[in-house]
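BUG: 3D viewer hangs when loading the predicted structure for this chain

Environment: internal workstation, default settings.
Expected: structure renders.
Actual: progress bar stalls at 90%.

Input used:
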Amino acid sequence: MICEKTYWYYTKALDDETCDKIISLGLSKNLKTATTRGKQEKNQKNKNSISIEDKTLQEVGGRSKDFYIRDSEVSWLTDQWIYDLVVPYINDANVRAGWKYNIDCFEQFQFTKYNSPGGLYGWHNDGCGDHNSVYKRFIPGVHKYDEYGEIPSGYQAGNSSLINKVRKLSVTINLSENNSYEGGNLKFDYGPHSEKERYHECTEIRPRGSIIVFPSFVYHQVTPVTKGTRYSLVLWSCGRPFK
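Structure tokens produced before the viewer hung:
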């Protein structure tokens, strides 16, 4: 899918006091090593693995198991006051960017801590938007919990409003001061056939409290943090699959 606007952003949307409050709240939770698709051991850095960064597997001549794609810690927030602050920006961006996607529910906020050196999240998208990508209902006794005793990726509890929904818009909020860390930029890959420059690094959201909204199917990464610590808040907006 090709969009005229690939992202919409708001500079310094949240003030310092609010950013500090969210960071304190996120750190007060049980921070866990981030996983990808419910798997931890294949995604984290080890002595034999390297970051793929901007390159494809074909360009480096490697195998997926030779690389790590995620190195961060996360916790989850569901405080209503944060939704009240952020959701109006999502609704505004959805209209002003011309997407006008049908959004009717939101996931939990993911608070993320990227440490230096090397905290990153390699190339990925957050969702495809098709009917094969919907969240399925988790039925205890029928489906198995993952190795951490949690509902596996792609499933939701039986009463969740996310069942049969897909991620449509992704939101990232920069909670850190611009000069408190180096690297750690959100970067997009528009694909080899894009009329735009293929890779675009979003320095527009470096100012603290800035918010960016973009379609969840767009490939993106967080470049390695080389100094300091980067804190961010992520949210996914969901709805029925695209038709």
